[in-house]
Amino acid sequence: MIVFDLSCDAGHRFEGWFGSSDDFAQQREDGKLVCPLCGSAVVDKAPMAPAVGRKGNQLATKPAPASGPVAPVANAPMPPEVAQAMVKLAEAQAKALKDSTWVGRKFAEESRAMHYGEQAHAAIHGEASPEEAKALLDEGIPVAPLPFPVAPPDKLN
Ligand SMILES: [Zn+2]
């Protein structure tokens, strides 16, 4: 099926659904196409409708790209096996972090304190900017990005 924007000789606009372009031409030739508003059989394809005032024209205004870090996205749904694998990975991450303490934005500070022996070593996870993570790595402090975001617990330790 294809849809055409149609207009009659009185300027009414309406949509018509056809099996094909030939189907449209045939119906028009046979005088089967009539304007639903005034009954005129003088109907033809309307010139390209302007986007203004039409449904769905919200899409015409593109939102400004967000600033800051970006994440990869796709507009296709994940195949079930990928979705399942993601769930498994997320579970594995949660398991790995079970004995780890959430330190939020203090991650860089805490990691440094442990690395330089100012604090007993413990498993922690939290948030760090790419710059902070790079600085830690430069200092020889091992940090690894988590594949999945972690929801901060209500109470910080
Ligand atoms: Zn009409």
How is the secondary structure organized here?
Blueprint: E1 2-8, E2 13-18, H1 21-29, E3 43-45, H2 80-96, E4 101-104, H3 107-115, E5 124-126, H4 130-138
Parallel strand pairs: 4-5
Antiparallel strand pairs: 1-2, 1-3
The structure holds zinc ion.
Q: Key features?
A:
single chain, 157 residues, alpha+beta, 2 domains, 3-stranded antiparallel beta sheet, 4 helices, rod-shaped, binds zinc ion
Kindly estimate the percentage of residues that lie in beta strands according to DSSP: 5-15%
- In round numbers, the mean pLDDT is 84
Low-confidence stretches: none
The count of helical stretches stands at 4
How far apart lie the N and C ends? Answer: 61 Å
How do the helices and strands follow one another from N- to C-terminus? Answer: EEHEHEHEH
**Quantity of strands, as a count:** 5
Task: Give me the Rg, rounded.
Answer: 30 Å
Helix percent band? 25-40%
Bound molecules: zinc ion
Q: How is this structure best described in words?
A:
The chain is α+β, with helices and mostly antiparallel strands and 157 residues long. The protein has 2 domains: 2-45, no CATH class; 80-152, no CATH class. 28% of the residues lie in helices and 15% in strands. It has 4 helices and 5 strands, in the order E-E-H-E-H-E-H-E-H. The strands form 2 sheets. A 3-stranded antiparallel β-sheet has the order 2-1-3. Strands 4-5 form a two-stranded parallel ribbon. Strand 4 (101-104), helix 3 and strand 5 form a beta-alpha-beta unit. The chain starts with a strand and ends in a 19-residue tail after the last helix. The mean pLDDT is 84. It binds zinc ion. Zinc ion (ZN) is lined by residues 8, 10, 12, 35, 37-38, 40.
